[in-house]
Every structure is written in C-alpha cells, then in structure tokens.
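Note to self: user wants both folds in one dump. Writing first protein now.
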Amino acid sequence: MTSTATAQLRRRIARNWHRLNGPGRVAGVDLARGLAVLGMLAAHLLWLGSLSWTEPSTWGSVVTGRSSILFAALAGVSLGLSTGGPTPPHGAGLGRARLRVTIRALLIWLLGVLLISFDVPAAIILPTYAIIFVLTLPLLAQRASRLFLAAAIVVLVTSPLIVWANASPWWESYKGWLLGLYIGWNYPFPLWIAFTLAGLGLARAGIRSRRVQWAALSVGALLAVAGYSLSPGPESSEQTAGRSFLEAWWTSDPHSSGVLEAIGSGGFAIAVIGLCLLLRTGGRWPWLTFPLRSVGSMPLTAYVLQIVMWAVASMTLLGSAHEHAFRDLDPFLPITIATVMLSVAWSLLVGQGPLEAALGRLSLIGGPPASSGANTQQRQNTLEP
C-alpha cells in the first residue's frame, strides 16, 4: 500500500470514528441499540428457560421478550431524532417528514417479507415496525407529555383487547397464520406502538438533557419494579394453554401482551435507554464501548445479517432451518462475534451501515430534511430497529 493510500485510509477511519464519537452523535442510543441486538441474538440462538428474579442462574433469560420491546422503544427514539429531536417539524417540514417515514415504512415491510421467505423459525419483527411507523404519523408533531399519555392509554386499552383476540382459534387457521406473518402479530402493533410512542416522547423531551436521562432511568425502573412485582408468579417463557382471560391479561410473561408485561418490560426498556445515555459512552474512553456501539449504529443491517447467517448456516450444515437443531449447534458465540467484527470494520472503513444508507437515500424521495441545527443528528440516527 502506497503512502498516499495509507494516508487516505487513515483519514477515512478518522472521519468515521468522529462520526460515531463526535458531539453530533447520541452515543448512548447506539449503545442501547447494540445491547438490543445482542439480546436479540441471545433470545434467538440460545436455549433459555423461564426467568426467576430470585435465581441468578436464570437471569440470562432477561433477554426474552425485553430485547424486542427495547428495539420498539429505540425505534421511537430514532424516529424522534430523525424528525427534529426536541423541536418537532411543522408545516411543510412536517409533511416531508411524514412522507419520508412512510417510504421507510414501506421499504422495511418489504424487507420483512423477504426475510419471511427465508423460512427461518424466528418471528420477523420488521412488519410490525413498518405498521407502527405509519400509525405514529398523526402524533409526530406532539409534545412529550402528550406522547407519554398516549402510550399509557394505549397499554390500558389495547392489552385486554389483544389478549381476547389472541384467544380466537382463527389464528390457527391458514389465513390467520398467513396474516399474522405479514403484520408481525407475534409483536402486535396495537400494543407495541405504546413502546414506540414512549421512545418518541423521550426524543421530544430532549434526550441530551441529564434531567431527562435521569428521569428515564428512575421512572423506567419504577415501572419495571411495579410490573414485575405485581405478577402473580414466576415468569414463564412458554404460553400456558387453558388460562382464564384474567390470568392471561394480568401477567408479565414474555410475549403475552399482558398488561404487566407492557408496564414492566416497557419500563425496563426506558430504564436501559436512560442508563446508556447517562454513561456518556461517546466521551471518556469511547473505545471501551465502540464495538457494541458500532453494532448499534447499524441495527437493521445486524438484524438482517443474523437472519441470513441463520438461514445459510442451517441449510448448509443441517439441510433445514429448524430452530431446535440449529440451536444445538451453539451458534450464538460465532454469530455474535461475526456481527461485532463486521460492524466494527464496516463502521470504520465505510461508514453508515449498508441497509441504513440505502433506506436513507431512498427515503429522500420524500424530500430533504428540514433545515435545522439537528440535521447532523438526524442523519446519524435512523428509524430502523
């Protein structure tokens, strides 16, 4: 390599390092998204049992259900950051922002349909996100207090409705199964929009403020303690057949859509975001968290990469993508290491994640972002899970 090429490489690495560590970046959001990606990998690729808070040996199961809810809350944070942060768009700027979000939502849904076709035995969450982004459009210009109130109302109203709807045998029919795939019903959007609205509220409240960060940590922790402590028994990762409506609703079980899960796991997600923001990960010793933050800077790419690696590895080694057989290969560590190494290399040598960059360019069909001091932040924080 010539001295000129070496100098160009160094400049590129320095520029990309500054992109993830400069003052325009909310590094704590990247850290939280990186944790969510690792939690998702663990939930998909490890054998995890039921969680009991009094038994430390089961604490690894904390990722079950909570990683996806953390993603949903972070999607709201990213949505807020990409549309003005604490200063929501208005007028023509609001119309352009809504159009860009709609275009991204359509592309994310199409990408989700593509991943579904890989026939990997994991519930693809992208269709849920696509629908949620569209449903948040009417509230995009609301202030933080109204968004938090809307999130609370959504939880209280939709949780019992979803528990009731899930009891219908129609979901076991072919039409119900197919519809569930393409709308991401494993993560039912009528309830999950609450987590995204809470994240959007954080962004509108001013996520760089230490007061907001401490409030997110403390309020989120209180909600988590309230939700989990009110649960009538230890969490179970298995859906229990034959439960009464009240038992199915008043529970914190992962993926149950129970009201206590929404309160507890929603609060847990908000607390994690607050803690990551308070750590000031882009300040002193940023290299300590850089590998995880590089994963969090390209969450959509990391998510899709995991599904693709799962499909290719399982079909190559097993001839089938069956969940149990693939987990028996202990794929968590190699896939996690590969994801982190590829994310670090790409973020330093290239920059923005490939899928994030592609969606960003395509969404500009809806017009450029409104001119504001938050433009650097808007470009660097995307809508993807």
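First done. Writing the second protein, which came from a different request thread.
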Amino acid sequence: MRATRGAARAYILAVALGAALCVLPALRPGAGTPWTTLGLLTGLYLVCELPGRCPFFGSSVPISAGSFFPLLLAAAFLLPPPAAALVAIPGSLVGRVEKPPAAARRIWRAGQLAVTVWAASSVHTLLGGPAALGGPGPDRLPDLPYALLPACTAALVFSLVLTALDGSILAAAEQLPLRRAWSGLLPRSLGPHLVHGLAGLMMAILWHSSYGPLAALFVLLPMYISCWVFAQYHREHAAHRATIRALVQAVDIKDTYTRGHSERVGRASVLIAQELGMAQERIEVLRFAGILHDVGKLGVPTRVLRKDGPLTPEERRVIELHPEYGHEIVRGIGFLGEARAAILHHHERLDGSGYPYGLTGRRIPEFARVVAVADAFDAMTSTRSYRPGRPVPVAVEELKRCAGTQFDPQMVRALARGLERHGWSGAATADEERVPVPRGQDEAGGVGAGSVRGPVRPRPADGLGRGAPDRPR
C-alpha cells in the first residue's frame, strides 16, 4: 500500500475498518449465523473469482467488475446483514487485480463490497424481504410481486453505496473534487445493478425452493454468458486501440520531428475534456481524435514533410490536404464517431482563416476545437532539435492571447484549469538525431508544424498569428 497516495491509504483503511465492524456481529457466539448457507455462498463466490488468478486460464476468463454481483445480492437477500457482508471478503481478497498496488486494491475491494452488501442486506431485511422469499415446502411460497419491492430497493442501495465509495476513492487517489469524481457513475451503473438484483432475487427464491441451492446455480449461467459477451467487447476494443497505435507509429516514423506529439495531444485533449465535464465515453473518443489528428500525414510525400527550409506554395497546398487525407483514412472506422470530424477540422480557426473549409465559430465541431488547442499547446512546449520547448505558463499565455480568433476561449480556459490542477509531464520529442538547423532558421508555422523550417520573420510566438510564414501542421 506504500505506492498509494496517503489520503487514499487512509480512506482504504477506514473502509476496511467499517467492513470489519459490519461483519463482527456474525462472528460473535450465539449470533445464530446460518453457517451452512454462508459457507456455500462464500465458497461459490470464491470459486467464481479464482479462475482469474489461474495461469492456465490466462486472460480468457471473462472476469470483470460486476460479473458475480447477482451472487452477492442473493447473499444479501438470503442472509442477515453481517453474514451477507462476510460472503464478499474471501473472493475479493483472492480475485484478479489488473493494476498495482495489488494488496491495496484487494483490501479496498473486499472492504468496499462488504460494506455495500451489508447496506443492501440491511435495507432488504428492514422491508421484510426475507419473509417475502418464502421457504421449503408448498405452504411457504414467495410473496410475489411484493418480494420485488425489497429486492429492487436493496439493489438501488447496493448501487448507491458502491458508486459513492468508487467516487470517493477516486477523489482521494486523484485529488479530484467529489462532484467530478462521482459524475456519471450512478447513471451508468444503476441499470445493470437493478438487473443483477432481479437475478439475485431469482437465485434466492430458487435457493429456498424444494429444489434447493443446486437450482440457484443455473441463474449464474446466463450471467456468465453475458459476462463473456462483455469480455469479447473489451477484446474488440483492445484491438481498436492496437490499430490506432499502429497508425500513430506509422505517422511518427514518417515525420520524425513530431514523434510522440500525437500521444501528447491525446493526453492534453483528455485534460480539456475532463475539465469540461464530458461523459467518459466521449472522453475516450476525444482521446482517439487527439492521437489520430495527424494521421493524414501518411498521404503527404515524405520529402515534403522532412524538407529543410521554407515550403513552396505548391508544397503548402499539399500539406494542407492532410486533414482531408486523415478523414478518408478513418472514414470507415465506426467506433471513432465524433473523432472523424475532429481529424478533418482541427486546423479550422474561429475567425474563419483556417483550413480545409474556413469554418467559423461554433460551426467548427467541438472535438476539433479541443484538439486545436491541445495540438498548439504541445507544439509550443515540446523540445525540438532546432529550438527548446516553451515553459507551460508561457504557452498558456500565448493560447489565451489568441483565444477568440484562432482558438475557442472555453477550451483554452479548460486547459489552463487542467494544467493548474494536474500539471504537465510532456516528454521531449524524439528527434535529437536530426542535424540542427543553421542559426536564423526556425519552424515555419511554429505551432504543431512538424519538421519543415523556414526563415524567421517578425511574428507572434510560434506562428500563432496570421502574420507568420505559417506552415500547415
């Protein structure tokens, strides 16, 4: 746990202590804990989590957060709250962890789920849920549809507590405001958790039926199949990311002066999007837009991209086609969505002096306005072989100066807030092996201009103004 932030460590320990207090009554002598049911449910949850740790199965086992929540909710319906909280602990402590620190994450997961299951079980008991489940024998049938009320309410509480804890640990670990850390968590999880609650209710009713616990296991089968489908989706998403990385590497190889630029533009775009409060799904697409914004350079002749000296008018026109080339390259990639418009329009300017179509103001797509600011910021702060990178505050001031004419002021302000909150750790561009240009030459067009350089003339810093010998980026 030493690798975790101090505030996050303290919060994890507090939640773990809360979990211990939740389960303690079940361990006291004379508590009347139904150990047989508790043991079966705990063992079943443990068995469900173990394959994720087994090298034989590797990453092919569809284990993910929420895979076995129906089982935990069934425990919340079948057991008293302290006993139900115990069910989640062993499986959480041995489950697969994707990122370090593993120990802290396992302790957090066990404490979080124990507290969440305890809360759901307490609400279910308070509303008379256990009596509504019925029991063995024909004279103790489940009280339907009333049993749905305590079950759905317990699932709602499960979702509320789980997302509240998720957002709080994110705020503690990343030093985010609670409102931002919690933003969007509950709407995304509420629907799935209600479905898990209904599956858990079905399992609990079957558990109390004359068929016994074995029949309840069949509820897990469709949940496991849906989990497998979900895992397939993530594998497909990973393949998409691999395709994007391949495209970016191809651009970096072709235009060595801007190597690493695309990844940094993607990071800066995410920084802006988070400050704007975009939904996580849009943030991911915007990151792709930032990473792929210069993919059209693959259609530009290498001799033009790597030319030393000023561009001819014809060469300028060729490079100005790279947004359209990029749009054509990614046109058929459906998952990119809004990113395609950003790739096409990231060189438009608010005053209409940009390219390829001279769009103005809000006619420029939102993603394109974000990427334009991120692109300019990284170009100014990146170190090239022929000039050092500018300090971040200087680059931000230059962006502010050009806000309203070249850049969207809202995006510039969002970037400034994000940098103030998180800082910036952009690495130097990997072009040190290039021969430095003679004194008196600089990058023609400056911001994000790539590798072509030309004579310096009086102009605003890094070619942000229209008076510069601006080279298309």
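Dump finished. Worth passing along: Residues 54-65, 428-472 have pLDDT under 50 and may be disordered.
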